[in-house]
Amino acid sequence: MKQASPLSERRMLRSDRFWQETAPYLRLVGGSMPGIVLIGLVMLALYGYFVQHVPAHFPVIGVCAVVLTYGVSTVSIRTYMVQADLIYLMPMEARIGEYLRSCLQNGTLMQLLKAVLFSVAVWPLYQTALSETFSGISFPMLLIAMSLLKLLQIYSWWRETYLRYSTTRKLFAFVRMLIAFLGFYVGLSGHLALALLLISLAMIANLLMLQVPERHARASWERWIELERRRRASWRSILKQFVDVPEERTEVSANPAARFASRIALRRENAFDYLYFLIWCRSPLFGMTVRLSAIAVVILLIVDGVWMKAGIYALFAYLSYLQLAEMARKVQDIAAVTVFAFPLSEHKQRRSARKLAQIIGSVHLFLMLIAAFVIPLLR
Amino acid sequence: MRMPILQFDQVTGGYNPRRPVLHGLSFDVRPGEMVGLIGLNGAGKSTAIKHILGLLAPSNGMIRVKGQPLAHSEEAYRRTYAYVPESPLVYEELTVREHLRFAAMAYEVDGARLEKETASLAALFQMENKLDTLPSHLSKGMRQKLMLMAAFLVHPELYLIDEPFLGLDPLGIRALLELLDARKKSGAGILLCSHILSTIEHYCDRFVLLHEGRVLAYGTADELCKQAGLPGAGIEDVFISLVREGNAG
């Protein structure tokens, strides 16, 4: 039997350690299993109902293509790398290929599983578009296409991690996503041969183009460490919905909405409003709240029936409440890092956190109301 | 003599009441005075600062800022000082300018003064082109400059500054020393922790030499020289001599 090399062994040890650290939390999450299963069943029932009552104008092919594109283009491979590797693993850069191969082999299996799950999820909806005049593609064909495209996307994504500049990486990721979307759209529309030709040519061109920009020759240490940090952070953010887990630094993004903070008057009583607004805008909390609102609005625009809309409205209002309660706690946690140094009371902190949650919640409810009941009246 | 802005009165404290880090510390900082808090690693300098900030509570003794303990009025107590920590503590979500605006709100600095001070401090610390930058794009020295800018923006009566020179470039160090001198002359009290004794020697009016949580020596540079039996010596030689004596004793 072939023995694992020391570096791939190190990868396995790190992976084992991560799961050993995570296992106690997963056991605690298990305690919430009945609730999770219940929510899952409700979502499935809603999806089933929707599949049976798809509105006539609903763009089935487009929506399926978007969902499949998301499933196939979002790639995340664990590298288990940490900052200390710049000191301890970097001297072995010449042999880092062994370590990375081990990461890729392990990650690819998980990514293929994800692709299959997305195919299974989309298939019932796609079937509604099939008719006597439109035969589309079969499920095995979809699975094969998803798997092949996923492998190509993983390879392309991996090459992108070597690119030196984030703008070039983002551009290639966008192109990769666009190719997948066009391929799925054409393929799901029944033009399978054309889709295969389009995807093959475009992906080959994309891979060739990847050789052009400046890139790291052998290893992209900082990128891999950052990707691993994000993966760990996303694991923790999932677990945090159920149990208390230690915090890790979250990513900060340059959100243009943050410029509205300058409109908050320069007054002492507004200090925490100002701080929390900026933390919300530039932390992942912004994306979380906006995504929930966007999903709610899209679903409310699609579904028919007053009771159905009212039920979904109530469900998303409740989810928003849970999310905003967590957000209010989170902004206070982030602020706690240095707030002791400022002459501001704890009472003001709590009041501002509640105020921000109330404002975002009100906007969320208002947008859902417009999507559910006002826009249908205008149609 | 004016009332001290900061008073340590027989303060004993630390992380565990049964094993205190500080043992009966007494010293003060008066308005218009810079006091250097010096000592070896682990002498208790940062622990002393944590007690002033209220992050740790003394198990015995009393700390007063402007004659009042923290418990009297937390907001009034905290408004008196600005704190610059050893490791820059910044909000990753706020740009340099936004940090200054937040500090201005907390200390009730008006808009016109905020604009004026931001411009002059940014020029002084060569941070003009970094004002709209997020901390993730700042070097350690620049983060330290951000902390200093926020502290000097608000003109408090007391500055608590812990190892401010680490990571600062020579221009930054010069700018900081000039600012400290100017604020001292305008009446602010300054408690400065630093290992760079040769740098602070000519700026501090008095020194508190901590050793194993106790005040080993306290006074002006001349008084410390006399205590060490090294008249006319530099503060670094005096420090080494006193600490060796302390270790031997």
Describe what you observe in this structure.
The complex is a heterodimer of chains A (379) and B (249). Chain A has 13 helices and no strands. Chain A starts with 5 loop residues before the first helix and ends with a helix. In chain A, 72% of the residues lie in helices and 0% in strands. Chain A is globular and about 60 Å long. Chain A has two domains: 191 residues, no CATH class; 129 residues. Helix content of chain B is 39%, strand content 22%. In chain B, the strands form two sheets. Chain B has a six-stranded mixed sheet, with helices on both faces. At the A-B interface, helix 10 of A face helix 2 and helix 3 of B.
Overview features:
heterodimer; A: 379 residues; mainly alpha; 2 domains; 13 helices; 72% helix; 0% strand; globular; B: 249 residues; alpha/beta; 3-stranded antiparallel beta sheet; 9 strands; 39% helix; 22% strand
Short description:
Chain A is mainly alpha-helical. Chain A has helices at 6-30, 33-52, 60-73, 85-88, 96-129, 139-160, 166-188, 192-209, 221-239, 271-282, 284-302, 306-335, 346-378. In chain A, helix 5 (96-129) packs antiparallel against helix 6 (139-160).
